[in-house]
Amino acid sequence: MNDSGKPKRLALPKLIEERQKVEESSRLWDRYAESIENAVLSEAPPVPNTMLVEVANICNHKCAFCAYPLMTRPSQVIDPELFKDIAAQAYELGVREVGLHGGSEPLACKQLEDHIATCRDLGFSYIYFSTNGSLGDENRFKGIMDSGIHSIKFSINGGDRETYKKIHGRDHFEKALKNLAFVSEYRKSCPQEIRLSVSFVEVPENAASLPALQKAVTHLVDEIFYIPAANQAGQMLNLPISPTIPDTCHIPFNQINITREGYLRGCCNDYQNKLAMVDLNEVSLKEAWAGEHFRSFRRRHLSGDLVGTLCQNCIHGANDLAAPLRPELGDWGALREDDRDVIQVGIPKT
Fold it and tell me: Which CA distances in Å does 259 have to 10, 39, 265?
């Protein structure tokens, strides 16, 4: 609370302010800023406008900056009936924007088009996801757009085939560009506006290729969103602390995050479910958001008492053993050793 007794509001990190000034027309940086500025720092904040659903914790790539390939949690897709139930509950509570991704590849979920249509029919005003763009073909992307998607972000982290292969661990550069070009053209025939963007996670090993990517895709997309690689919520400790995190992390206060198991979780970027708190197969979303498990988690953020949690590693760059908040929802232990046949970005900690 501040001196007036009202919940404290967060200031924007310097990087976000700088990017907003340089990229004045960036919808993605503006949305990121709004998610921070609108966060109500209270142990019982109102239900937010945005929900992220991990429709699948599966990915066909092994990006050098990503912890997904080190995950030991079983890979599956969300139960379709559970998705419908959670989406309906969220809409009833006032959620109007839904992202169908959570650190993995949404196109690995064969029911993705059905999930988009479910959200469309419920009345969600903004349905979106991020993808590496390599799993689908033209028919798949046509079906996705026809289902009612409002925004697609392609993750392309190399400006040429060789750099892309080194970073992604897969030789899918040309396929991703082909699908991007198709989406760019086909969206013109869709009744709804479809935003199209490309994200580029920058590390020293791919930074020089960004201009080539910009040249290749600028005419196809609404914007290119580039951001420095960070430690992935404390799961990639050879990478730095994220420069986009405010003094107090806004995510527990202003974003609903749902795992493919149907758990309410404290963050979207949590491959081992260390921050899973409530099973929505047993408890309503309304009860879970306002319940003691999440209240306690928010109190820890407000007081800075995060030792022993994944958040401590994320925010402070610690290398502590992070225990699951609720082991009964699954304790998958530590991430596996990194034996990927890709370049290793960053400077490993000793």
Answer: 27, 21, 7
Q: Tell me which DSSP letter residue 3 carries.
A: T
Alpha-carbon gap, residue 173 to 21, rounded angstroms: 31
Q: DSSP label at 77?
A: B
Instruction: Name 53's bridge partners.
Output: 258
CB atoms within 10 A of CB 229: 24
Q: Which helix (H) or strand (E) holds 40?
A: none
Which residue's structure tokens are 């370049």?
A: 343
> Which tens digits make up the pLDDT trace of 240-267?
999 999 999 999 999 999 999 999 999 9
Q: DSSP characters for 250-268?
A: SHHHH-EEE-TTSEEES-S
Rounded Cα–Cα distance for residues 312 and 267 (Å): 13
Phi, psi of 197 (to 5 degrees): -140, 165
pLDDT tens, residue by residue, 7-66: 678 999 999 999 998 888 899 999 999 999 999 999 999 999 999 999 999 999 999 999
Count of CB atoms within 10 A of residue 285's CB? 23
Q: Whole-number mean pLDDT of the chain?
A: 94
Which of 179, 180, 152, 157 minimizes the C-alpha distance to 169?
157
Question: Could you give the angle at the alpha carbon of 232 between the alpha carbons of 250 and 95, nearest 5°?
Answer: 40
Question: CA nearest 60: which of 144, 138, 133?
Answer: 133
